[in-house]
Task: inverse folding
């Protein structure tokens, strides 16, 4: 009987954690369980991206591995490719499907953090508090609202991967190695390299810390063995995702993440990667970092405006412009756009500082270093020497944009430090009460003191965008007055007066927003400190301490989360669908394959919904082909007619009910009379705007060398021939042609030599690039010739074999560890 009671007591925190995490997730996303859906921008875009891929799978059962639906066509490696050999992802990874998104993201994020803390050795009751801090941090809710699915899953698995690494280096290396291999496999498998990269940076700091303490403790041999286990686990994790990693790496060189060939030619060092200015556009400024403690320090999100009864409206009312307040931004940060702040929680930061003061060096310095590093790198262009150092010398760092994303490390380390601090209180209350009281006083004084300082004197420390607002509003009013025909004499500085008055009111209202949240954070710090004080005074026990901190943590974070994502954002499922417009319906009546559509009712090169119905000239993707991006910047943003023609742009949507049919498009393929050879990528793209692309193909000399039968001289006239597309699938295109002599045919399809193979009358022939982004072939004379293009990821069987073997090794290792634990447990019970 006592044994069963002991089992129940041990199981109680596990049951409590599951019920609590699910309850919070279900309550927060309650409309989901009533059949409503959350409109998510990136999910809607994704539906457009994968439309033709899913259609082909449904119709033929074949995975195309290529999409023709956006940007003229591109590999699907970073969109949606089926990798059957990913056995870990397809088995263990399927567990998360027991709950539907978006509630699944929140539930499994909290659960994953909690399980990681158990691996670290944190008490399960204490772990609940830290898990709430991690899962309810605003950043996760913001990306859920935006529809960043892979990023959300990456944040679910990242703590588990880190827990495995910790267990390998600190505790049982074999159990830790199996856990690392398993969770790193799942982490890599969600295909968000940026989040994985950042957490590996934190893991590297932890490894260096362990190495230092191993050296000091003369345990280098043991450390080396554990490192070897960790490396083996890493190799297996990579191997179990070898297919997507291999093809992504192969593909990245050709995308904007690999750098533009034009830009690389302009760089003296030949460096590749993203442009530094582009990569750091979303940088957290030093002042904006206070959002981690005070949620609306910067005014909230970019869409928030001033209230109709606030100071801005009041200042403008005497000029009859009070409605203008609803159009002015409360946000005064430097980011181009933000959906909301990265708020870690006042309670969480208070506990983290206590953890820093209480934990021993080995438990805290690496986590503190990771937090500081994340903060400094998140500053991006505001701390450019430091950012440029990493951008230049840290391998792979220049492939990622939105540097502020690295704050996900702080989202993890801050709750971790808080859990470590709580564990010291949990275990040692009676041993060093003076030290605990000192830590409590310092934590309250620093974190609470900062909140109090900003609440009382924040207006004297920052300008709250006053100067920038004055310049902007003065210019705006000046333009209005000039457009109204008001002369400088009549204005008499009215625009400057209005600009100054409006700016002062904007700053004052921003101060009020910040102060309200500063007082709010101060109250939560006091509440958390009060709970710790009661515990140290022995006026409450461990259970009450954890319960109070858990409640304050949840209330603190949830009430901020609801500002940016709430039940009000859900809509009936029928309203969350991409529906064809009248213009779409008219275009869909054209059954001829191959043509493309330009949709001007959306931002064409930042929107993929057009691809839901048509082959789009534009699209939405963070890693589009670099040459196509060059084409966008040089010609397509200006709607260059000749380039639209070569892309076979037959229709232009100008309104939901109006579409223009272009009669000048060159078709799916055409024969050219001659070629123009160029010596560089820059010359190649420049010549596109100078020649008649119907008659002449612009080809780089390096590409000419790939076809022994092709000579760069133009041919004389008198040629007779035709070519037409007869069958279209994303990964298979068939043409029929006739030609009275050998000739060069240009195909209005994106050139990609890593998978596309051309066949003429059943025989493979070499292809080459023409017109900067298109494909071309030297075709022999024929009365009824056929051309077929097929796409297949190169070395598919070999790459998938590596993936399968590694995946099975991980599953076998995990199974062996489970058997070992069960046998050991039975042995302990018998003894």
Result:
């Amino acid at each position: 009987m006592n044994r069963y009671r002991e089992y129940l007591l041990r199981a109680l925190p596990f049951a409590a954690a599951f019920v609590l995490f699910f309850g919070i997730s279900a309550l927060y996303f309650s409309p989901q369980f009533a059949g409503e859906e959350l409109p998510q921008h990136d999910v809607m875009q994704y539906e457009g991206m994968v439309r033709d891929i899913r259609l082909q799978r449904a119709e033929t059962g074949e995975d195309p591995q290529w999409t023709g639906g956006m940007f003229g066509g591109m590999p699907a490696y970073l969109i949606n490719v089926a990798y059957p050999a990913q056995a870990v992802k397809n088995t263990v990874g399927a567990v998360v499907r027991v709950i539907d998104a978006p509630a699944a993201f929140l539930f499994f994020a909290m659960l994953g953090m909690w399980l990681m803390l158990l691996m670290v050795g944190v008490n399960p009751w204490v772990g609940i508090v830290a898990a709430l801090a991690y899962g309810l941090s605003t950043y996760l809710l913001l990306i859920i609202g935006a529809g960043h699915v892979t990023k959300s899953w990456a944040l679910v698995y990242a703590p588990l991967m880190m827990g495995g690494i910790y267990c390998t280096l600190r505790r049982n290396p074999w159990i830790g190695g199996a856990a690392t291999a398993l969770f790193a496999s799942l982490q890599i498998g969600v295909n968000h390299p940026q989040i994985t990269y950042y957490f590996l940076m934190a893991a590297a700091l932890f490894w260096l810390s362990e190495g230092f303490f191993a050296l000091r403790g003369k345990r280098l041999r043991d450390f080396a063995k554990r490192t070897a286990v960790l490396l083996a686990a890493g190799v297996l994790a990579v191997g179990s995702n070898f297919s997507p990693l291999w093809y992504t790496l192969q593909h990245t060189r050709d995308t904007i993440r690999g750098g533009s060939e034009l830009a690389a030619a302009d760089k003296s060092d030949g460096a590749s990667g993203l442009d530094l200015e582009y990569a750091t556009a979303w940088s957290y400024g030093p002042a904006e970092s206070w959002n981690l403690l005070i949620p609306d320090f910067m005014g909230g999100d970019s869409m928030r405006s001033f209230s109709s009864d606030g100071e801005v409206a009041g200042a403008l009312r005497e000029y009859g412009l009070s409605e203008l307040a609803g159009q002015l931004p409360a946000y005064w940060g430097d980011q181009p756009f933000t959906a909301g702040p990265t708020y870690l929680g006042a309670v969480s930061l208070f506990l983290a500082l206590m953890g820093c003061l209480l934990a021993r060096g080995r438990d805290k310095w690496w986590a503190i270093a990771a937090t500081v590093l994340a903060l400094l790198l998140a500053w991006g262009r505001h701390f450019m020497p430091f950012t440029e150092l990493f951008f230049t010398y840290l391998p792979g760092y220049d492939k990622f944009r939105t540097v502020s994303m690295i704050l996900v490390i702080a989202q993890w380390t801050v709750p971790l430090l808080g859990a470590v601090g709580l564990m010291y209180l949990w275990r040692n209350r009676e041993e060093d009460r003076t030290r605990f009281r000192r830590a409590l006083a310092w934590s309250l004084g620093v974190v609470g003191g900062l909140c109090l300082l900003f609440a009382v004197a924040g207006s004297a420390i920052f300008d709250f965008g006053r100067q920038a607002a004055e310049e902007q509003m003065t210019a705006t009013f000046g333009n209005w007055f000039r457009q109204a025909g008001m002369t400088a004499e009549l204005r008499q500085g009215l625009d400057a007066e209005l600009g100054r008055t409006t700016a002062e009111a904007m700053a004052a209202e921003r101060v009020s927003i910040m102060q309200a949240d500063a007082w709010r954070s101060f109250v939560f710090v006091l509440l958390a400190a009060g709970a710790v004080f009661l515990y140290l005074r022995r006026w409450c026990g461990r259970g009450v301490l954890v319960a109070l901190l858990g409640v304050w943590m949840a209330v603190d974070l949830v009430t901020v989360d609801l500002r940016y994502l709430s039940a009000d954002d859900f809509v009936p499922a029928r309203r969350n669908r991409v529906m064809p417009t009248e213009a779409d319906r008219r275009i869909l009546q054209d059954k001829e394959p191959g043509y493309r559509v330009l949709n001007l009712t959306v931002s064409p090169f930042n929107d993929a919904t057009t691809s839901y119905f048509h082959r789009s000239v534009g699209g939405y993707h963070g890693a589009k082909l670099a040459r196509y991006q060059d084409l966008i910047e040089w010609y397509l943003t200006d709607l260059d007619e000749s380039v639209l023609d070569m892309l076979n742009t037959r229709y232009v949507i100008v309104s939901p009910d109006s579409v223009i049919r272009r009669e000048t498009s060159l078709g799916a393929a055409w024969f050219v009379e001659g070629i123009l050879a160029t010596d560089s990528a820059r010359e190649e793209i420049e010549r596109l705007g100078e020649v008649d692309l119907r008659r002449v193909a612009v080809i780089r000399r390096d590409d000419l060398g790939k076809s022994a039968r092709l000579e760069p001289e133009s041919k004389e006239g008198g040629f007779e021939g035709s070519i037409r597309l007869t069958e279209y699938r994303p990964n298979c295109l068939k043409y029929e042609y006739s030609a009275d002599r050998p000739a060069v045919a240009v195909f209005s399809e994106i050139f990609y030599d890593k998978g596309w193979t051309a066949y003429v009358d059943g025989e493979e022939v070499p292809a080459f690039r023409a017109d900067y982004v298109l494909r071309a072939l030297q075709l022999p004379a024929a009365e009824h010739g056929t051309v077929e293009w097929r796409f297949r990821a190169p070395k598919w069987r070999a790459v998938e074999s590596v993936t399968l073997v590694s995946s099975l090794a991980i599953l076998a290792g995990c199974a062996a560890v489970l058997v070992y634990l069960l046998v050991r447990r039975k042995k302990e019970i018998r003894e």
